Automatic annotation (TrEMBL):
Residues 93-121 are annotated as: Disordered. This is non-specific serine/threonine protein kinase. Pfam families: HGTP_anticodon2. Its EC number is 2.7.11.1. Residues 97-110 have a biased composition (Polar residues). The keyword Lipid biosynthesis does not apply. It comes from Oncorhynchus mykiss (Rainbow trout). The lineage of its organism: Eukaryota, Metazoa, Chordata, Craniata, Vertebrata. Signal peptide: none annotated.
Length: 242
């Protein structure tokens, strides 16, 4: 039971809504049916006999899959699944809302950072703000920008109907720390400040993290940017702040 509680705490910290079920009398089939009826698409099975590994069952419509992964990778695995599901649902929604195609031309940033013209596409710009605890040279900034544009090229092509701009905050943080920012709330100043306080209480490097949170506040609360990406140029990993 202690392992299950620990898993739930990690998922909640990462911003993933999670429930815990502890009833040895229920079969997996019963729990799967409960999840389907409740609209839950992912279930983690925690068992003492599996040690530090956890079975993750994913199901959507008629599809079902099972994967055995280390507990240390569970949060990232489920966050990625939630992100994929979000993109799929939004793409379906945007497609259904499109009444007629428009023959417009736009600019799409390619892997090299230059622009290509595409018919029937909206302009998608990747704006990079480098937030570094130390001074970075001009060549270093250009290298990071190219790295980020290459990494987010696919994301840009998928989000071009959502927003003309993708705001990227490039930070010098490890992946394990970056995941914690998914717990931030963006419904207003009060909720945001409370979530920032909770975030900072769990992590070191207070001054640097505060400067990152200030920029997130600027884009998400003040400018109401539709797409803000927090990117770790240290680990080449990113989270989308929704």
């Amino acid at each position: 039971m202690g392992q299950a509680i620990n898993v739930v705490q990690k998922l909640w910290t990462a911003g993933v809504s999670t429930d815990i079920v502890y009833d040895v009398s229920q079969s997996q089939e019963t729990m799967l049916e409960h999840c389907r009826q409740a609209g839950i698409t992912c279930m983690a099975l925690v068992s003492d006999k599996d040690g530090n590994y956890i079975k993750v069952k994913s199901f959507e419509k008629e599809r079902q899959s099972e994967k055995r992964i280390p507990e240390s990778d569970l949060v990232d695995h489920i966050v990625q699944k939630c992100r994929t599901k979000f993109f799929e649902e939004r793409n379906i929604r945007e497609t259904s809302e499109t009444v007629s195609p428009q023959n417009t031309k736009g600019s799409l940033v390619n892997a090299s950072g230059s622009s290509e013209q595409h018919g029937s596409s909206a302009s998608s710009n990747i704006n990079v703000l480098l937030i570094s605890p130390e001074k970075v040279s001009s060549s270093g900034r250009r290298r990071y920008e190219t790295q980020i544009q290459t990494r987010l090229h696919y994301l840009a092509s998928n989000l071009q109907n959502k927003s003309n701009d993708i705001e990227v905050l490039a930070v010098d943080l490890p992946k394990a720390t970056l995941i914690n920012f998914l717990s931030l709330e963006f419904d207003g100043d009060e909720q945001f400040n409370i979530s920032v306080k909770h975030l900072l209480s769990r992590l070191p490097k207070q001054r640097y993290l505060k400067s990152i949170c200030e920029e997130i506040h600027c884009f998400k609360i003040l400018k109401r940017a539709a797409v803000v990406v927090l990117y770790s140029y240290k680990d080449d990993y990113y989270n989308i702040l929704l």
